[in-house]
Amino acid sequence: MKQLETKILESGKVIGDDILKVDAFLNHQIDPVLMAGVGKAFATAFKDMGVTRILTLESSGIAPAVMTGLEMGVPVVFGRKSKSLTLTDGLYTAEVRSYTKQTVNEIAVSKNFIEKDDVILIIDDFLANGQAALGLKSLVDQAGAKIAGIGIVIEKTFQPGRALLVDQGMKMVSLARIEKFEEGRVIFAPADI
Ligand code: 5GP
């Protein structure tokens, strides 16, 4: 997605060898016009697949997921990372190792919001080692629902996430694919769209 690649080049910051900071438009401040484009792109890529719900992870997946849900006319559910007094039982849970924080979080979603006849589209902001996406897949599997595929805003192709997910038979669409960081610059691989 050209508009996204341009934004990454304009305002993404490479941190160390393998992290891209995109606080200016996705992870802290959000660019609504760009997110609307992201929503349209995912809705087009996964149209005619019978998607009934979108599942993402708080907090950075919510903006792209909501814009996709708006385009597709389906509800958006987010897996929660923190314990909540109002969300205590009736949960599907999975353990996810956080790539950026290097901690293991339990993620949880209420059993009310994934049903066995659902066809779920999983959306996340980044794909690195695939742990967040696999955790989300586990929540869907526990509910006995189907997965239409996985939509990723920014994939780092030099990390093993895609291979893990594709090996499990999942359709994956990434809007920007980063092949490498070279002296603080982002080098793209061809995107899926
Ligand atoms: P994975 O679970 O695929 O290893 O990592 C994906 C998760 O880690 C995403 O949900 C995202 O929050 C975070 N993440 C991984 N790589 C990056 C990165 O380069 N930049 C940012 N901002 N987040 C990342």
Automatic annotation (TrEMBL):
GO cellular component terms listed in the entry, alphabetical order: cytoplasm
EC nos: 2.4.2.22
Family label: Belongs to the purine/pyrimidine phosphoribosyltransferase family. Xpt subfamily.
Matching PANTHER family: HYPOXANTHINE/GUANINE PHOSPHORIBOSYLTRANSFERASE (PTHR43864), XANTHINE PHOSPHORIBOSYLTRANSFERASE (PTHR43864:SF1)
Keywords, sorted A to Z: Cytoplasm, Glycosyltransferase, Purine salvage, Transferase
Pathway as given in its UniProt record: Purine metabolism; XMP biosynthesis via salvage pathway; XMP from xanthine: step 1/1
The reaction(s) this protein catalyses: XMP + diphosphate = xanthine + 5-phospho-alpha-D-ribose 1-diphosphate
Protein name (Swiss-Prot/TrEMBL): Xanthine phosphoribosyltransferase
Places the protein is found: Cytoplasm
UniProt keyword annotation of Transferase present: yes
GO biological process: purine ribonucleoside salvage; xanthine metabolic process; XMP salvage
Binding-site positions, 5-phospho-alpha-D-ribose 1-diphosphate: A128, N129, G130, Q131, A132
Molecular-function GO terms, alphabetical: xanthine phosphoribosyltransferase activity
Task performed by this protein: Converts the preformed base xanthine, a product of nucleic acid breakdown, to xanthosine 5'-monophosphate (XMP), so it can be reused for RNA or DNA synthesis.
Subunit organization: Homodimer.
Residues that bind xanthine: L20, N27, K156
